[in-house]
Amino acid sequence: MGTETPLRDNPPRAERESVTISMIQQTQRAARLVDDLLLMTRLDQGDPGVAFEPVDLSAFTRAVVAEQRQLGAGREYELTVEPDVWVSGDAQRLAQIVTNLLGNVRNATEAGASIRTSLVGADGTAQLEVTDSGSGVPEGDRERICERFVRLDPARASNRGGSGLGLSIARALTRTHGGTLQCLDPVAAVDGAAVDGAVVDGAVVDGAVAAAPRGARFALTLPLAAA
Fold first, then answer.
1. Angle formed at CA 162 by CA 158 and CA 167, multiple of 5 degrees
2. DSSP state, residue 1
3. Do residues 94 and 60 lie in contact, with contact meaning Cβ atoms separated by under 8 Å?
4. Cα(181)–Cα(168) distance, integer angstroms
5. Is a pLDDT exceeding 80 seen at residue 214?
6. How many CB atoms lie under 10 A from the CB of residue 129?
């Protein structure tokens, strides 16, 4: 009814355009939700539809962060990527994992927040970590946040088109690739360096005062491709 009345009453052009844009956005959100639900069904049935091949995760990560930087106006992005970190997997699905993870962080932060992404290859795995300076994830919700339809801030998520499936899909696809995706304890900053999240606000570490840990911290690991 909300969209029928202004169209029937022949409102000004600006109002008609606003209604049209709103309808298109709602349609796009519904289409994304259907796609996500279909993918989750395939994953549940053990049919992810992935084709494994060597993939340059370093290049993928740089590309996704560049895209998120455009979408997340007002946020500060910091990127540290070790070159030539190769994994074996489906290029499209790996891109979806990284996009869903960084998109979730973007949606959970406001303008002015900082988002740090790092990627290294170590101990036979590609280790991608994403941290932000937002409000963080309560300890009791750090496992639940990757479950289906979980929105820790329902109002904000719905305003930004979140379906509550992004992290759930990312974790399921990660497991399909033999990896893990976790929400970990946040870290505290000491003179620009990260230290363990157990550091108490005001504690002295090597002569520097540590700030209280804050923000969210996600860690993605994937097996490195065979040399």
1. 140
2. -
3. yes
4. 10
5. no
6. 18
